[in-house]
Design a protein that fits this description.
Distance between the termini of chain B: 39 Å
Largest sheet of chain B: none
CATH topology of the largest domain in chain B: Rna Polymerase Sigma Factor, Chain: A
Order of helices and strands of chain A: HHHHEEHHEEEHHEEEEEEH
Oligomer: heterodimer
Distance between the termini of chain A: 129 Å
Helix content of chain A: 40-55%
Structural class of chain A: alpha+beta
Strand order of the largest sheet of chain A: 5-6-9-10-11
Radius of gyration of chain A: 41 Å
Strand content of chain B: under 5%
Number of domains of chain A: 1
Low-confidence stretches of chain B: none
Shape of chain B: globular
Helix content of chain B: over 70%
Shape of chain A: elongated
Structural class of chain B: mainly alpha
Amino acid sequence: MEKDDLIKKLEETSLPKIEIKSHKERLNSVLMKKYSPERKKAEVFNIFRKLVPVGAIAVILFFFIFNNLNSPRYNLAKAKEIALQNNEIKNWLQQGSTIKDIELVDGRAYVLIEPPEAKKQEKEPMPASLKSEGAFQESEKIKENFRGALAEVNIKERKILNIEKLAPAAIDLIQSKKDKALDIANKSQEVQEKIPKEAEVLNINVHTPKFRLSKEGDYVSAIPETETEEKASIIYQFDENQCEGKIDLNKERMEELNCLKEINKDATSE
Amino acid sequence: MDLKEERDLVRKAKKDSEAFSELYKKYYSQIFGYILKRVADLEIAQDVTSETFLKALKNLWQFRWQNVPFSSWLYRIASNEIVNYFRKQKGKKVSLEKITEPISTDNIEVEFIEVQEELKKHQDFLRAQEKISKLDMRYQEVIVLRFFEKKQIKEISEILGKKEGTIKSLLHRGIKKLKDEFFETL
């Protein structure tokens, strides 16, 4: 049989309308009985279907807002904002200090404020560590100097819990660097002229006004930055005088030498 | 009934059971006839027709008018139900006896036997249908719709949700298979 013959045969093959009336009627009555429950189901489904996008948008918005409110970036900004509301901090910042770093720990933020031109202050005499030794007396000018602060902020309660003013800290040098610093100092003309050979070396270390935040578990503290340790400080004691020499270990030279008696003399003459 | 009137009736059927009944009465014979031409068995045709209209009722509220006759949607449900029926084959059947209250079956049986006798008179159709039923389902659909239901390619494409080119290709391949493999004896 050819394809056309088959098509012709199929077109001619027909089945007249055959119907089972009893089935048609029974099915109609079943459909009528099911109509109302199905309509109710569809209405509930339609309400649900309309609510789904609204619900989905609400959930997305909730997570978006929740995540943003709890995001580190948001909390950092909030901590900064709270810190700026404090008059003391505001005053420091107006005088050129900056917020150097902020660490977040369990609903609290630690804000490190760095004084302006920290490097210049690095050159200033009078290490805080010597205060306890009673050897040095700070001038009023030095006392007034702001060397940085660490503010503890409670973000949830939007308040500052504590402000700790930082003092330049002494960093211990390794023995080889101590030897190198002493060698540079002793070879310098100033030391040879001003410091007697019998003078005792009280201390060799680094004093830095620069700090960074250190986080260990839930504990955050301000620790001295170690990058500045290439500048060492040597304290000589002789007779009733003390002198502090500043040595640049990289340039291998003595930068300055300040003695207590000279400072006191300057202060009284003023 | 033109397309606009049909659209109004469908819209009404979503709110009013009488309007749905009207739609049902309008399309019952057409859908039952199509299913019977696909399965050539009265009992199966009754079950599949019942399942088709129950599904149509269930999904009526999701039906969106797309300028295609309502019957196309019913044809599509029917086609899917036929596939489902043969997939389950002798599985769960939707028999009206199970979902309606028991009634006297004497008259029903008499009517059933009479209609069966009527069907048996059309041997040409039954022989052709037997051969077609051996083809893959996708060929059966297009051949029955095209030659027994006298549908145009565009209508078949609307019913099956396939492109007209695909329908033409299925028809061509279906007829070839029918000719090569089954119709030597026809």
